[in-house]
Each structure stands twice: as C-alpha cells, then as structure tokens.
Amino acid sequence: MITGFLSLLCLGLCLGYEVELENEKLSKPSLNALPGPVVKRSRNVTLRCQGHFQNVTFMLGKLQDPGYRQEQNSSGYHAEFLLTDLEPKNAGTYFCAYKTVGSHGWSQKSEYLQLEVTDDRVELGASSTKTDTRIIFVTAFSCLAIFLLFPSVLLIYRCSQQGEFTG
C-alpha cells in the first residue's frame, strides 16, 4: 500500500511540475549585432542572442520573412548567428527567442533589431558627384580670373607706354 501511495505521490508531483512549466513564461532574451547594426555590403555580422538559462535552443527570426528561421543549441547563455556576405536583401528587422528542454514553447521574443546593409557603390557615386562639382567650380573660377587678368595686363601695358612718351 505504501508503494502505491508513493507512486501516486511521485506521479502527482511530476505532473504538477509539468503544469507549472507550461504556465511559466520564459523571460525575454536580448539581441545584439557585432560589430554593429549598420554593415557594409559583402561584409559579415554576428547576431548574438543572450538568454537567461544554459543548455537551451536559440532561434533567430526575421520579421519581414516568416519562413526565415535559424536554430542553434547552446550549452551557454547565448548563441551567435553569423550572417556572411551581406546584401541589401539581408537588411531587415530581426528577433530571437529560446526554449529550454522542459518548456513546450518559445520564450517571449527579444526586442527587435534593425539591421542595415549599406551599398558602397551608392556612397562612391555621391562622393564622385561632390568631386565633380568642385572641379567645375575651380575651373570656372580659374577661367574668370584669367579673363579679368588679361584686360588688367593690357591696361597696365598701355598706361606704361603712355608714361614713356610724356616724360
């Protein structure tokens, strides 16, 4: 009889623990971009998801693409997702979550991280436009200076010629 009682007690405690885990919401992880959230085209970035428990599965998602999902098991408190050879299509709003072995669902989503991918070619075009404007300005100023210098030299020459005959 005691064996049956202990078995039922153990079963009740185990089921109670499972119900408690189901009702418990896992806290929100944090998401950071290394070296930062603005990355040049063709470069790499690491998105680090930091949780509050060890031995969990981390998940990285993208708000604009519901089908995008990377998962990674970790024995530590964080997981790093390396995004390589970035293109403008990789830009967007990312989030992460985690789940423990005993939990049946994912934690709350992290705060959103906005990843920007800059295009060097656009920056070079803007820089080139500034350089072209400077060249045009310097050329126009030089032509104006030469245009004004020529009559001045001519006027000085005439005045000096008239001074020789009057003396």
Automatic annotation (TrEMBL):
The lineage of its organism: Eukaryota, Metazoa, Chordata, Craniata, Vertebrata. It comes from Molossus molossus (Pallas' mastiff bat). GO terms for biological process: immune response-regulating signaling pathway. SMART domains: IG (SM00409). Gene3D superfamilies: Immunoglobulins (2.60.40.10). This is V-set and transmembrane domain containing 1. GO terms for cellular component: plasma membrane. The keyword Transmembrane helix applies. Pfam families: Ig_2. Residues 1-16 form the signal peptide. The chain crosses the membrane at residues 135-157. Keywords: Disulfide bond, Immunoglobulin domain, Membrane, Signal, Transmembrane, Transmembrane helix. Residues 34-118 form the Immunoglobulin domain.
